[in-house]
Amino acid sequence: MIGLAVLADILVALFIGRSALTAESVGCYLTDAMVIGFHCQGFWASDSVSVWLNLPAWAVYGLMFAPYSLKATILAILVWLPLIIFIVASRKVAQRA
Who is most buried in 38, 43, 77, 81, counting CB within 10 A? Predict the structure, then answer.
């Protein structure tokens, strides 16, 4: 899921760029005010797509900003928890084999 989000991020950055959309525009664009992120507007799932596109950035930035923000701490945990569970489960299976 994060791999597909990274691919989508690259495609948005390459083909759409970072110019803000007008109020009546539909689509997603790259923002780079202080940290890189993506913003979508104009369609019914725009908020969900924005969250999905920003997931890889939160994987990195969440760890960096976790000491300063409770929201960043929670998001970092949610992003990295599936990988941690996979690693722990893999090691337990390897110990039994």
Answer: 38
d(CA 91, CA 93): 5
**CA gap 50, 38 in Å, rounded:** 6
Q: Are 24 and 41 in contact (CB under 8 A)?
A: no
CA-CA distance, 46 to 38, in Å (whole number)? 11
Please tell me whether the overall predicted TM-score, pTM, comes out greater than 0.85 for this model: no
Q: Distance between CA atoms of 83 and 74, rounded to whole angstroms? A: 15
What pLDDT tens digit does each residue of the chain (97 aa) get?
Answer: 778 888 888 888 888 766 666 777 788 888 877 778 888 888 899 899 988 888 888 888 888 888 998 988 888 888 889 889 999 999 999 988 7
Task: Tell me the domain boundaries of the chain.
Answer: 2-96
